[in-house]
Each structure stands twice: as C-alpha cells, then as structure tokens.
Amino acid sequence: MELGTFLLLSAFAYGIGIFWYDLLPGKLAERPWRVAAYPFVGIVLAEAMTRADWLGPAFGGLHVVPLLVGSLFGVVVDWLVTSSRHPAAIVAPELHARAA
C-alpha cells in the first residue's frame, strides 16, 4: 500500500466514521482515533474478504462497496461493544457534602 492510499483510507475512515456514528442512536466517541479506528479495521477486513467480482468501481485504489460496507460493519461492532459495557451508567462521580 502506498502512502497516499493509506492517507486517503485514513481520512475516509474518519469522515465516514463520523457519518455512521451520527446516523446510529449511539454517541460520537470523544477520541478521534476511535472514530477512525473501527471503520478503518472494517474497511481493511472487507477489502481483504470480498470476492474479486463483488468489488465494484475503485477510486484511488480503494473500492467503493467494501469501503461503505466495511465502515458500517466496524461502526456497528463498536456501537454494540460500547452499549454492552454500559459506559453511560456513571457519567461522573457524585460528590456528597457532609451535613454540618
């Protein structure tokens, strides 16, 4: 993989990650590398596992169908993992003042 293709894939993974996270009922992750990491891994896996006749058109060395399907799959996996862990159960620790 060339450097330009890697940078294009990273930028696309971040952009499409924001798009999919906004469409899902979950919350956008606070860390930008998490927003790009799961779609990136999904895209790489989809590109590697897709049959050659299902790849479709390519742009910049990247195929459009695995980009969209893989990124959606990566975001859904992240959303399921995050929702199963229930991170929003405790938003912040409660501070109680002692009665004087």
Provide a brief overview of the structure.
Helices cover 61% and strands 4% of the residues. It has helices at residues 3-23, 32-49, 64-85, and strands spanning 58-59, 62-63.
Q: Sheet with the most strands?
A: 2 strands, antiparallel
What is the radius of gyration computed over CA atoms, rounded to a whole number of angstroms?
18 Å
Helix content: 55-70%
User: What portion of residues belong to β-strands?
Assistant: under 5%
Task: Describe the SSE topology.
Blueprint: H1 3-23, H2 32-49, E1 58-59, E2 62-63, H3 64-85
Antiparallel strand pairs: 1-2
Helix pairs in contact: 1-2, 1-3, 2-3
Description:
The chain has a two-stranded antiparallel ribbon with strand order 1-2. It is built from three helices and two strands. It is mostly helical. Helix 1 crosses helix 3. The radius of gyration is 18 Å and the shape is elongated. It has one domain. Helix content is 61%, strand content 4%. It starts with a helix and ends in a 15-residue tail after the last helix.
Short key terms for the protein model shown above:
mainly alpha, 3 helices, 100 residues, two-stranded antiparallel sheet, elongated
